[in-house]
Amino acid sequence: xxxxxxxxxxxxxxxxxxxxxxxxxxxxxxxxxxxxxxxxxxxxxxxxxxxxxxxxxxxxxxxxxxxxxxxxxxxxxxxxxxxxxxxxxxxxxxxxxxxxxxxxxxxxxxxxxxxxxxxxxxxxxxxxxxxxxxxxxxxxxxxxxxxxxxxxxxxxxxxxxxxxxxxxxxxxxxxxxxxxxxxxxxxxxxxxxxxxxxxxxxxxxxxxxxxxxx
Length: 214
Known about the structure:
Blueprint: H1 2-17, H2 25-40, H3 43-47, H4 51-60, H5 63-80, H6 85-97, H7 101-104, H8 106-127, H9 131-139, H10 144-152, H11 176-182, E1 188-189, E2 212-213
Antiparallel strand pairs: 1-2
Helix pairs in contact: 1-2, 2-4, 5-6, 6-8
């Protein structure tokens, strides 16, 4: 049984790693070559990567590993004590909901998006979180400090466009708060165009990134 499960995970990772992981040809090549390694790597190894490489690796991970990353993040947040007991319950509900199915199937992805839209409405109505708090707690699989370190280690503005064309790069945002908090700009803009990647933006990676920071 364990051997069958391991083989299934290998196939899922193989399929994930075979798709385009980044519009930057160098990062895409690197991510495909290292996707198998990071599927089994520790959280610390993944979050220590520069942001563009980290995002490419995230896109290539299996649904199982993505769920693990998000739940590890949730555990760290809860242990900091920054949430009230009531907030903890609603926060944990989000991470208890996600399963590999939500990251590996079209129907699962659609169901996840419906769930997070309703969840977001509840948390904003009940606790009045601002955009920045919502972003740091639910939109990135890193802590705030880890996110800043990943951005500092990276220079997204200098990345080439890969096969999509020299003026096109991988989309990196869906909300402007990502840009303002990362120092990459003030607005998440859909112009100039970027190539949308597999879900890696929004609450628990429930949405496609649709823009770049301007």
